[in-house]
Amino acid sequence: MDSVTMRSKKKHLLVLLSIAFLLFCYFGAHRLKRRERACDLQETLPSYLNPSVPSVIFKSSYSHEIRTTKCDLKECFNFTACLKNGFRVHVYQSSVKPVSDSYQRILNVLRQSSLFTPDPSQACLFILDIDTLDRDILSNDYVTDVPSRLKNLPLWNGGMNHVIFNFFAGTWPDYEEDLGFDTGKAILAKASMSQEAYRVGFDISLPLVHSEHPEKGGEPGLASGMNFPLEKEYIISFKGKRYTHGIGSETRNSLFHLHNGEDIIFVATCRHGKSWKQTKDERCDEDDLEFERQVLLQNSTTCLVPRGRRLGSYRFLEALRAGCIPVVLANSWVLPFSEVINWSQASLILDERDLLQVPQIIRSLSQEKILAMRQQTQFLWERYFSSMESIVMTTLKIIEERIWSHMKQEAVIWNMPPGGIFHQLSVSSFPPICPICETPDLELEEGFTALIYVTTNPASSTVPFFHLLKNVLKSRNLSKVSICPLVLLLLLLERIVVLWCADSVPQRNLFPVVSESLLHILVPPFCSVSARFYPYPILPHGAVFSLDEDASINSDELDFAYQVWRHFPQRIIGYPARSHFWDDAKNSWGYTSKSPWNDPDHFVQRQSCINTFVAVFGYMPLIRSNLRLDPLLFLDDARRPSVFGCAAYLLRL
What we know:
It is a single chain. The chain is an alpha/beta fold. The chain is built from 16 helices and 20 strands. Strands 1-2-4-6-7 form a 5-stranded parallel sheet, covered by helices on one side. Strands 9-8-10-11-12 form a 5-stranded parallel sheet. Helix 9 (314-322) packs across helix 11. It is elongated and about 155 Å long.
């Protein structure tokens, strides 16, 4: 009996030991595999502190694919039509469905452009009349049947040579870069473009703009004439949305740690969506009451531009226009037109992980750096972003330079006035010439010629024409003048040429008594405004001052203009009193000034001439550009021994 019991106990013990051994083998091996996988993963994961690793790795939520093809110009673009017919753009006209106001402005700009062709067989690029700007399915402007409509386009060809514009992609809650259709081989011009989705040399990153962004013209920068004081009331500021639920507030939720209420202002409103009240915290009500956003923009040296729901932000262009240097905290964001624009000249691009170091970085900027960056913000805003026309034409210019890459402009052209969009590559067969990029060895002739255009017979010697003639002659008596120890200029009138387009030439005794070699009266073969630009043999190749008979200008102003021209002989120098602007009410360009013309019909003709200019060129050819030199102490001897006088020249862009 005892032996049976002992065998039974041994049997049960052996079974238990076998089960325990099997359990140990199973769970032990599984745990060991997990540890090995963790070790392998740890070896392959980049270090968070490794500065050589792009920060975009740590933002996986933005790395979704948005198209099925990986394209470049060699694989996904047909150069044949472009090389045969030039750079022409065709806009589809098959759609009967209405489009959003923003997309309609883009189509208007394209159809009014000199690049537009109604014949698709002559086109190099094709633009859809299907509204693809807003691809958020919750938006009222979302178009649902885009895939089927693309397949029905006879010229679609998988998207080859097509350009698709998009401002908003993805929707709640992840806001993935998903357009809802396959763009195929089309070039994607998109806002909030990430580095993972961006096809270098093929796609184009656009700015995020408000729906009321103007079609043409655009407002000038707010800091164009207000560069001083260099350091504003706040060194950096931000007021915007802070999302209490969902993505987009990783950075914004930490801003209150840096807010000091004195020279650093970081406040955020929680008002967004429909359920923000259920998730708001104790800071929401307080932050929402403090400060006004536009006031902060114009009174801050720098403005924070953090990522939001999407990578791009309206704040970027708002800061640019206000002359507030953007401080970008949006890892993996491809900045607008970064292929041609050097954003380091106008903004600070920092890593989101460096948020707590932002104040220290801002305080380390020198005043010279602040001034240069602020001026650059105004140039970039007015040239490339102030209107839909600027944005669209810049997009087309970048594509054109990719096609004719051997004629591509240097980066300096894009990043200094007058900018890169006015150089027409496909119009001329000659290589691009940049007169402002090199200083030619010019043998400047001393003195200047005054060309006076006369259209009315002077009744007496007291009319404005003879007053102007006497003021010009006063420059004859000036000798060498030095405005500072570094500059020595000659001010000397060489000759006066009166371009006589009136009925009859008056008696010689009405003119001042001067030698015939100084005063020349010339009757042109044709009388029109263009007659003054004809290269008459009597005119030298140096400085020619073109004056109207009723111009109100004194000798000091003439001498100062000549002095400036000696500094910039390749530039047009003058005293502009008139400017152009886009009139939304009339849907046309306007020409405004404190006009000296007494005949109102004459002014109306000038207005009409401006719009004829635009119709011929396909865009506004006039450029807002001025150089302001301070003439307050001009001709003052007390200024000669001081080099500081030279620094009084202020460049206003």
